[in-house]
Amino acid sequence: MKYYQEQEKEKKKLPFEKKLTLIIGVIIATIVVLGCVWYFAAYRKGIGRWVKTTEPTCTEYGYMTKVGLFGKEESERISPLGHDMVNNICRRCNCTANTKNLEFTVSSSGTKTSVSKINYALGAVADVSVPTEYNGVRVTEINRRVFADSLGMSTITLPDSITGIGADAFDGCTNLKVVYYAGTIEQWVKISFGTERSNPLYYADNLYVDGKLVETVEISESTQIKDYAFINYKALTKFVAGENVETIGARAFYGCERLSEVVGLSNIRLVKSEAFEECGDRLTVYYHGSRSQWESVAVMAGNERLTSDTGVYFYSETQPDESGNYWYYDESGNPEKW
Predict the structure, then answer these.
(1) Are strands 113-118 and 102-106 parallel, antiparallel or unpaired?
(2) Which positions ≥6 away from 212 have C-beta within 8 Å?
(3) Which of 105, 125, 130, 165 is most buried per CB count within 10 Å?
(4) What percent of the chain has pLDDT over 70?
(5) In what side-by-side order are the strands of the sheet with 73-78?
(6) pTM (2 d.p.)
(7) Exposed, middle or buried, 242 (CB in 10 Å: 0-12/13-18/19+)?
C-alpha cells in the first residue's frame, strides 16, 4: 500500500516539473528573441559599428563615429582626399589650381613645361597644388630646389604629368606631412628623382593615390622602380613585385621602417645600393624562385637583409623534405613560411 501511495505522489510531481521546464524554456527563448531584437535595433542606429558622419573633402578632414554598447562614443578622423587636378581643375571640388605663386619655363620645342620658381614668402603657403598644364602645355618637371626650405608647406598635390623632379626640390621641407598624387602607383615609380630630397616622401609620412593611403605597393607593369621612389616612407608595409620588375633603384625603399614583406621578384636582375637599407629586422623577402636563381641576382652593397640567412625565403608549392627557408601561398594568397 505504501508503495502505491509513493507512486501517486510521483505522478502528481511530474506535471509541476514539466511546467517548470516549460517556463524556463519560455524565459530563455524570450531573452534570446529580445536580445536579437535589441541587437538589430542597435545596429541600425549605428551602435557597435563605425558610421561616417562627415565626408572628407580635398582639404578638410572627415569623421567616423561609433557608439559603444553602453553609450560610449568614439570618433576617428578621415584624412583629406587631396585635389585631383586634371587640366588645372579638381575633379572632386571643381576648384582651379592656384598658379599665381609658381613660375614656369616652357621648353624650346613648346611640348613640355617645368616648374622653375616659387614667388611666395617661405612658410606662407601650406597647401600647394602643381597644375597638370600651363598655357596648354603639360607640366612634366619640377626644377632643382624649387620648394627648398618651404617650412610652411604641409601638403602638396602632384599631377600625373610629372616625370622628373630636380635635385633637392624639397630639401628642408621639414613640415611636409602629406602628398596627394593624381596618377597611379605604376606612374609614381617611373618618376626620376634627382636626389633623395627630390622626393617629397623624404619628409612626408603619407602618400595618397586615388584618395587612399598607400600602405601596400603592387607593381605589375613597370620594369624598374626608380631611385628614391619610396625613400623614408613610413606608412609602407608590403611591396609586391610582379614578373615584369627587373630592377630596383638605389635607396628606393631606404628607411621604410614598417616594411615587413617583399613578395615576388621572380624576374629581378638588379637590386641597387641600399635599396632596402634601414628597413628593420622584420623585413622578409618572399622570393618566387629557387636559391640558385636568387644567387644569380646582382644585389649591390647596403642590402644586408637580402644577403642574410634569415632575410630571404624561397618559393616551394609543396613542403620540402629538407629544412631551410621556404614559403608558399596560403588560401588567401598571402605568403606563409613552411
Answers:
(1) antiparallel
(2) none
(3) 165
(4) 83
(5) 51-54, 62-67, 73-78
(6) 0.77
(7) middle
Length of the chain as a residue count: 338
Q: How confident is the model at residue 7 (pLDDT cuts 50, 70, 90)?
A: low
Q: For residue 45, is pLDDT > 60?
A: no
H or E stretch including 224? strand 224-225
Among 103, 122, 252, which Cα is nearest to 175's? 122
How far apart, in whole angstroms, are the C-alpha atoms of residue 9 and residue 151?
A: 93
Tell me which residue has cell 565626408. Answer: 55
The Cα angle at residue 93 between residues 91 and 97, in degrees rounded to 5: 75
* Mean pLDDT estimate for the chain: 85
Q: Estimate the share of the chain in helix, then strand, then coil, as percent rounded to the nearest 5.
A: 20, 30, 55
Q: Which of 143, 140, 172, 176 is nearest to 158 (CA)?
A: 140
Amino acid at site 229: A
Type and span of the H or E element at 336: strand 335-337
Residues 6+ apart with CB under 8 A from 199: 165, 170, 193, 228, 229, 231
Task: Decide: 260 and 282 in contact? Cβ < 8 Å.
Answer: yes
How distant is the alpha carbon of residue 25 from its chain centre?
A: 51
Answer for the pair 149, 182: CB distance below 8 angstroms, yes or no: no
Most confident range, picked from 35-49, 206-220, 239-253, 314-328: 239-253
What gap in Å lies between CA 288 and CA 89, rounded to an integer?
43
